[in-house]
Each structure stands twice: as structure tokens, then as C-alpha cells.
Amino acid sequence: MVNNPGKNKYLLDSNILIGFSLWKPMSLQLNNSFWIQFSESLGRGDWILLDVVVNEVNNGYDSELKKWCKQQTTNNYIQKISSDNRNRGIDINNAYPMIDQHSQKSTVDTYLVAYAEENNLGIFSRETPRRNSNDLYKIPDVCDILKIKRLRKPKAFLKEIGFN
Predict the structure, then answer these.
(1) What radius of gyration, in Å, describes the C-alpha atoms of the chain?
(2) pLDDT level of residue 25 (50, 70, 90 thresholds)
(3) Interstrand relation of 150-151 and 49-50 (parallel, antiparallel or unpaired)
């Protein structure tokens, strides 16, 4: 694996970590070397993992992934969102409603967008754009409006962070 200075940096949405951990070829149980390299690339700053994403993973997902996230926290590899990011997330949701008001689902998405916007980062998420104009906005919709880079394909992301 090679560090790629000058490449775009991306935040990861929760659905990426969860997807990687559940996909058999990359699962924590079957592909420990991938997760070691993935951690190393996080430690080098090739990509960014936010505290709100880790918290979302810790609230109900795979225990092996929770352990992995805890290790990244212990290593001080996790970035924390600021109160400015939270406030900007509220502004984003007011302009482009993303949060389901009943379940509070997608709250983290507004913080991802706010952090990416402030730090000139992209977002790697498997979300698809909303289908109807009456639907809640999704990460791709808001990224496109705010001109935030985004990736959806794992292969493109892994190439960006130096995996061959």
C-alpha cells in the first residue's frame, strides 16, 4: 500500500464501514490484513473517520466492527466534529431536509456534509440520490448542491487511498 499525497481525502459514511465488515471477502473475520492496512491508511490521514460515524456504528452493529472502531479511537485516529459542524448540520437540514423527524435517522449525514464542506473533503457513501422531489434529501443530493466531491464505488475509494 502506498500513501498518495495530493489525492482527494474522503470521509466515510457508516454504510461503508458496515458494508466492508459484512462483505465476506473483506470481513473482519476473513481479511485481517485488509483491516490492518485500512487502519494504517487512516492513521496516515489518507481518509477521515468521524466520531459521529463511530458512535453510529457502536449503536447496534457488528461487535467485531465495534472493536475495530474502539481500536481506532484508542489510536487517536478519529476526528471529532465541532459545535460549528453541528450548527452547520442544522442549517443544512433546514435548507435540504435530510433527517427523518420521527426516527432521527440521517442526523449523522448532516454532520458529514458540514465537516466535508468546512474541510474541503469528499464523502464516500453508498447512498443513492432521492428518487422523488418529496423524499428527504440524501448525501449525494446535498453534495451535488454544495459542490462537495463524493464517491460511491469502493474500488474508486480504495484506489484513492493507495490500495491496489
Answers:
(1) 15
(2) low
(3) unpaired
